[in-house]
Design a protein that fits this description.
heterotrimer, A alpha/beta (about 350), B mainly alpha (about 300), C mainly alpha (about 350), A: about 350 residues, alpha/beta, Rossmann fold, 2 domains, 6-stranded parallel beta sheet, 16 strands, about 20% strand, B: about 300 residues, mainly alpha, ABC transporter involved in vitamin B12 uptake, BtuC, two-stranded antiparallel sheet, 2 strands
Chain lengths: ~350, ~300, ~350
């Protein structure tokens, strides 16, 4: 009888444990996203939102977002709000959210905070980014190969390191297939203003550019290229619908798989705070499909280079690399470290434009 | 090289100046009737969104452009209601309309950011566009620009050579005398507000249907305010408005082109140019005229009679 | 046949105008709710989430107060100018310049104690803001230039100056090239009241409000300003120094907005960055008008409109309503209050007339 009692107790315990754990597993994870611009901008926030939708598709997860949140105290409040409403994970997708998020992370130790493109961490706050510059390099190769005037125009938003780094990588890529390629940069001082961006692209076309690239979130520059009958490189997402005859390719973000992996870690309890900067080998950045006008040999060239980047046998910022004044910034054979990359405020040789 | 750059710059000037021109003409009509409408910015944004939506849903850019104008009229009607009927302060009402218009358009339009809609594309007029220098500058634009070659003339004719136009101006110069003469001040002011609103809406529609085929929040980026200043610069005359609009269009295009040409000037300073120029131009216009060219009764509500 | 007769009231509605204002705001809420429905959001739920987000918890109210502080100060300034019918639309730029002035001091004296740095910051902020108010006044009085456009254009220019500085000489060397000034030293930060998240700027607001009220109530200059405000021509005949008055109100107006910029940069953001500009200067105009330019009512209206901003964030998070909804409500409120003014100043009745 004692045996039966014991068996019964054991079975009961097992059942209870099973019940509890399935409850735990069934607990809905609330995940919040904070965006710096409207979601539909076909740009930066749009790409992040695609990632959010991938997370939403996971079992046991619900997501929500707030868009167009200015950096600073407003962001702090929004993140705080999410934490107060018992969100389990919060993603903040702009550099300027770093300090606000850190403040909130200290107040809510049980919530997981993930910051994109920053560098500060806490026990419950990690940061992440993607090596977009690798995809930029590849897109630069396409531009360099397709240009006939050897002038490539680049409409860029703000002279911050991320943008400058992208322009440099793009230029290096163009130069790797076309020694004479030059890149001219115009700063629009806006992330998404189609009218200004289109005007910027036009001003570049007027000085002889026959390929237009952009670090902008709207397809304005693509329209300008299409109207003039020249080529263009998009950004953030495939912009070919806006300029089917012009759009060669675009460096794009693919946050979905990374976001899913973070959520899975949280669900399984294996998440820990770290600073990660995954590259093209994880698929977090990539190239949009080539337009029909891109010849096969260029596609093959790019594919080969991409394979090298994925395998890690080469990298984009390996010296010798000179700046616009001719000074060597990265010595021969040296691969630039992350710190240099993250703080890049100078242009490489072959770029016409100032970083002010 | 300079000459080569000059022609595209002038061509860009005409394009950039076109939305300003539409909006300025609209505000001239309204102010001539004695009503100050500071809501131009808000009306333009609503026009831009509504035009864009209409093009998206109907696929017909010309119809969409007209819808943009109608949306402008409808929005301006709010100003008319508040000021003409409820005797609201015209300055503050215009401001409120700007806040509301921008809010409304951004609210509805957020879901449409990133989409493209059918619009107008440049169409080179045969023969005319082959004229050296003038051809590429003036005759290689979209049809809405070509419209602006004609509209100022029509408006000038209407305001200064028709009885209706005369009545509108009378109501703006001396409403008491006008009323004594049998004119309905309120009716003609409504005409000024609604008619002006139509052109302001067109100015907005131009941005999302021709200048680009896209919509974005805050698309007008202050152009409505520049238009209000341009009315003063133009001494309330359609002809001079053309000059003013192109001058400012040129400045707005210039700063980007200077960058493309490789200038070392910081872009923040270049971006200030349109606003600085507006102030300078305003100072010069107001200073030089000892007798103000403004309609005498501008901005003052007429109290209801009885 | 009945005929509608409209006539101006001898005495505008006094305290009863409250009802008109409430009615107007309610109507504005109604219109806004309609727009919620237009986009598929259930209106009653939307309004409920809005209020709950704004005032439904201790931290929400604290958030409202924090936001109300800059709105209040800018509005106090705007009201002073509006009293004289000088349309100062430049509060946004004056706020910006105030933040710039404060930052300049904070960055210039990183090692000084608070009793040195903070007053320096206030003084420079007030001077910078006052200057930005002075310029439109100068152009108005000396060159008959419309102050509305000038002050508005200067808003844009001020923001571009801010951009230029944070991308250039004031850029934080540790910010990885992102445009922001270094964080202010602890001495340069206005602290929080007790354990709340509200900063001492609240006290500044109260003190300044009383000062402004006392100024208008008890001083000769204040009395003269009120006189000019109600009838410019008569005041001129009476020999009042209208010219000087214009300068005075614009400088005061700019100075108050500059003070707001100081508090926001010091207490809320703790540094200078472009995102410090969120449109408080424009909301201030709505508040000033809503409050009929009265400092006490400005206090109430500031909290309400700050609450609107805070509540709208909640709307975004819970119901995915776009952020621009706040602008819609502000616009509607101002328009309905403007229209409501009609009932305060006019009476209408029906008479039998042939």
């Amino acid at each position: 009888m004692v045996n039966k009692m014991r068996i019964f107790k054991v079975l009961l315990t097992i059942t209870l444990l099973l019940g509890l754990s399935s409850n735990l597993a069934a607990k809905e994870l609330k995940v919040g996203f904070v965006y710096v611009s409207p979601v539909g901008d076909a740009g930066w926030s749009y790409a992040h939102d695609m990632g959010r939708q991938a997370v939403e598709a996971l079992d046991g997860v619900t997501t929500s977002y707030v868009e167009a949140v200015p950096e600073g105290p407003d962001a702090e409040r929004v993140i705080q709000n999410m934490a107060r409403k018992d969100y389990d994970v919060v993603f903040a997708t702009s550099f300027g959210y770093m300090d606000p998020m850190l403040k909130v992370a200290k107040q809510f130790p049980d919530t997981v905070f993930m910051h994109c493109s920053g560098f500060k961490t806490a026990k419950n706050m990690g940061n992440y980014f993607g090596r977009m510059y690798q995809a930029r390099f590849l897109s630069g190769m396409v531009a360099g190969a397709m240009t006939e005037s050897d002038i490539i125009g680049y409409a860029a938003a703000f002279p911050i390191p991320e943008v400058i780094r992208g322009i440099n990588a793009f230029t290096l890529g163009a130069q790797s297939v076309n020694e004479d390629a030059t890149v001219r940069v115009v700063w629009t001082k806006t992330w998404y203003d189609p009218a200004t961006e289109k005007e910027a692209a036009k001003s570049l076309l007027d000085v002889g550019a026959d390929v237009i690239a952009q670090h902008q979130d709207s397809p304005g520059p693509q329209e300008a290229a299409q109207e003039k009958g020249v080529y263009s490189i998009g950004y953030n997402s495939d912009m070919s619908t806006f300029a089917p005859k012009a759009h060669l390719t675009a460096p794009v973000w693919n946050w979905g798989p990374y976001y899913q992996s973070v959520i899975k870690e949280v669900q399984e309890g294996t998440w820990k705070s770290e600073s990660v900067w995954p590259g093209i080998e994880t698929g977090i950045v990539g190239l949009a499909p080539f337009g029909d006008m891109v010849p096969q040999e260029i596609r093959d060239m790019v594919a080969a280079k991409k394979a090298e980047l994925v395998a890690g046998t080469t990298d984009v910022f390996t010296g010798p690399i000179k700046d616009q004044q001719g000074k060597v910034r990265i010595a021969e054979g040296v691969q630039a470290d992350d710190k240099t990359l993250l703080g890049m405020t100078w242009f490489v040789e072959g770029i016409v434009g100032t970083t002010k | 090289m300079i000459v080569e750059l000059f022609i595209p710059l002038l061509a860009a000037t005409i394009q950039s100046g076109t939305p300003l021109l539409y909006a300025t003409l609209g505000e001239i009509i309204t102010e001539k009737s004695g009503v100050l409408n500071l809501g131009v910015e808000g009306i333009m944004i609503v026009g831009a969104l509504m035009g864009f939506l209409a093009a998206s849903f109907t696929g017909n850019p010309a119809l969409a452009f007209f819808v943009a104008g109608l949306a402008g009229t409808a929005t301006a009607a709010i100003h008319g209601l508040v000021c003409l009927v409820f005797q609201g302060n015209q300055v503050v009402s215009g401001l409120a309309l700007t806040i509301l218009g921008a809010g409304f358009a951004n609210y509805l339009g957020t879901s449409f950011v990133g989409q493209s809609a059918p619009g107008f594309s440049p169409y080179a007029i045969p023969y005319l566009s082959d004229i050296p220098v003038l051809g590429p500058i003036a005759f290689n634009h979209d049809p809405l620009v070509y419209l602006t070659y004609v509209i100022p003339v029509i408006i000038w004719f209407y305001l200064f050579s028709t009885r209706h136009g005369l009545s509108i101006r009378a109501v703006g110069e001396n409403p008491f005398a006008a009323r004594a003469g049998g004119l309905s001040v309120s009716d003609y002011r409504w005409a000024g507000i609604l008619g002006g609103g139509f052109f302001m809406g067109l100015g907005g529609g131009y941005l999302s249907l021709a200048y680009t085929h896209l919509w974005t929040n805050n698309m007008t980026a202050g152009r409505g305010w520049i238009a209000v200043a341009l009315v003063i610069f133009a001494f309330w005359r359609p002809g001079r408005a053309v000059f003013g609009a192109y001058l400012f269009g040129g400045i707005m295009s210039l700063q980007l082109r200077l960058q493309a040409a490789g200038t070392e000037l910081p872009s923040s300073l270049l971006l200030m140019l349109p606003y600085l120029l507006t102030i300078i131009v305003l100072v010069l216009s107001s200073w030089k005229s000892s007798k103000s060219a403004a309609p005498a009764a501008l901005g003052v509500n007429m109290e209801p009679s009885e | 046949m009945l005929h509608l007769k409209i006539s101006k009231r001898q005495d505008p509605l006094g305290w009863r105008s409250c009802f008109v204002i409430f009615g107007a705001v309610a109507l504005a809420l109604f219109f806004s709710a309609l727009l919620l429905a237009l986009r598929g959001t259930p209106p009653h739920e939307g309004i409920f989430v809005l209020f709950k987000g704004a005032f439904g918890s201790r931290w929400a109210i604290e958030d409202c107060l924090i936001k109300a502080i800059p709105i209040f100060l800018c509005s106090l300034g705007v009201a002073i100018a509006f009293r004289l019918q000088i349309w100062n639309i430049g509060a946004e730029g004056q706020f910006c310049m105030g933040a710039l002035g404060a930052t300049w001091m904070a960055l210039s004296f990183p090692d000084q104690p608070a009793w040195v740095v903070l007053p320096a910051m206030v003084i420079m902020a007030v001077i910078a803001g006052g200057l930005w108010g002075f310029i439109p006044a100068l152009l108005r009085q000396k060159m008959q230039t419309n102050e509305i456009i000038v002050s508005l254009m200067m808003n844009y220019i001020a923001i571009l100056i801010l951009d230029y500085l944070v991308y250039g000489i004031w850029k934080d060397p540790t910010s990885f090239g992102f445009p922001m000034s270094p964080t202010f030293s602890d001495a340069a930060i206005v602290g929080k009241i007790g354990s709340t998240s509200v900063n001492w700027g609240l006290l500044h607001c109260a003190v300044l409000a009383v000062a402004v009220w006392a100024f208008f109530r008890f001083t000769t200059i204040g009395y003269e300003l009120k006189a000019s405000g109600s009838n410019v021509k008569a005041a001129r005949y009476a020999g009042l120094p209208y010219n000087k008055q214009v300068f005075l109100v614009m400088i005061l107006s700019g100075a108050l907005a500059g003070w707001a910029g100081f508090i926001e940069a010091s207490a809320t953001v703790n540094r200078l960055q472009p995102s410090i500009m969120v449109g408080y200067g424009y909301t201030a105009i709505v508040v000033a008008w809503l409050a009929s330019l009265n400092p006490f009512y400005i206090g109430i209206a500031s909290i309400l409109l700050a609450g609107l901003r805070v509540g709208v964030e909640n709307l975004q998070l819970d119901l995915q309503v776009p952020a621009a909804f706040g602008g819609i409500m502000e616009g509607f409120i101002l328009l309905t209050v403007l229209a409501g003014g009609f009932f305060i100043y006019y009476r209408f009745s029906f008479t039998a007339k042939q």
